[in-house]
């Protein structure tokens, strides 16, 4: 981070690496799954367990049966469609590949999930499956911070929306205040909530 503070469950933390973030219960799903998410030459199981290998390697050996069981269970829960756990992730549809990446982070048992454009590049049916998964995750008591450029997605999924313009927060809206017009006015800088809602 360049500035500001990060708090998890009310406690300020100074995170210096991705590994430390994961250990503190904070994960991030990148908007570009092909560049920063999937490992195309690896299987769906290997992609899912990549961030939680410590769960399956202890006592000086790898516990593949436990890995296969836990990945199978979370795939079933998330309705991941794949011919087998050994199928290359590059052969899956965009929606199923995205669900594999979500499964990767769910296996880490995070408290806070930052999801950057979680439905970008997937079909309508897969989008609604992702939305349901996100709703279920929140019901489990976890926090989701969703970054999205799709207004209907934000309005339909969020409890609170922070809007930014030129790198600054220009508005914070609660659910009863949501409207596309109001969000766009903050996003274009016509209304700056940081200045007590004064119109420019």
Write a brief caption for the model:
With 200 residues, the protein is α/β, with parallel strands linked by helices. The protein has helices at residues 18-23, 33-36, 44-49, 64-78, 94-106, 124-139, 151-157, 180-187, and strands at 6-8, 11-13, 26-29, 57-58, 61-62, 112-116, 143-147, 160-165, 168-174, 191-192, 198-199. It folds into two domains: 26-149, 3-Layer(aba) Sandwich (Rossmann fold); 159-200, no CATH class.
Q: Can you lay out the helices and strands and say which pair or pack?
A:
Elements: E1 6-8, E2 11-13, H1 18-23, E3 26-29, H2 33-36, H3 44-49, E4 57-58, E5 61-62, H4 64-78, H5 94-106, E6 112-116, H6 124-139, E7 143-147, H7 151-157, E8 160-165, E9 168-174, H8 180-187, E10 191-192, E11 198-199
Parallel strand pairs: 3-6, 6-7
Antiparallel strand pairs: 1-2, 4-5, 8-9, 10-11
Helix pairs in contact: 4-5
Describe what you observe in this structure.
The protein has 200 residues and is of the alpha/beta class. The chain folds into 2 domains: 124 residues, P-loop containing nucleotide triphosphate hydrolases (Rossmann fold), CATH 3.40.50.300; 42 residues, no CATH class. 38% of the residues lie in helices and 20% in strands. The protein contains 8 helices and 11 strands. The strands form 5 sheets. Strands 3-6-7 form a 3-stranded parallel beta sheet. Strands 1-2 form a two-stranded antiparallel ribbon. Strand 6, helix 6 and strand 7 form a beta-alpha-beta unit. Helix 4 packs across helix 5. It is globular, with a radius of gyration of 19 Å. The two termini are 30 Å apart. The C terminus is likely disordered. Belongs to the ABC transporter superfamily. This is Ribose/galactose/methyl galactoside import ATP-binding protein. It is a peripheral membrane protein.
């Amino acid at each position: 981070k360049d500035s500001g503070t990060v708090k998890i469950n009310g406690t300020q933390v100074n995170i210096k690496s991705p590994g430390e973030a994961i250990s503190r219960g904070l994960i991030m799903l990148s908007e570009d799954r092909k560049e920063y998410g999937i490992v195309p030459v690896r299987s769906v199981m290997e992609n899912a367990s990549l961030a939680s290998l410590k769960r399956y390697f202890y006592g000086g050996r790898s516990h593949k049966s436990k890995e296969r069981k836990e990945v199978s269970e979370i795939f079933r829960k998330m309705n991941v469609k794949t011919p087998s756990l050994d199928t290359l992730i590059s052969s899956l549809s965009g929606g199923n590949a995205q669900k594999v990446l979500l499964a990767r982070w769910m296996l880490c048992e995070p408290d806070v999930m930052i999801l950057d454009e979680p439905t970008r590049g997937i079909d309508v049916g897969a989008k609604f499956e992702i939305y349901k998964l996100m709703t279920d995750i929140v019901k489990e008591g976890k926090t989701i911070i969703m970054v999205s450029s799709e207004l209907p997605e934000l309005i339909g999924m969020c409890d609170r929306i922070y809007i930014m313009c030129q790198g600054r927060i220009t508005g914070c809206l609660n659910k009863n205040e949501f409207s596309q017009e109001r969000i766009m006015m903050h996003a274009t800088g016509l209304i700056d909530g940081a200045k007590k809602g004064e119109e420019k």
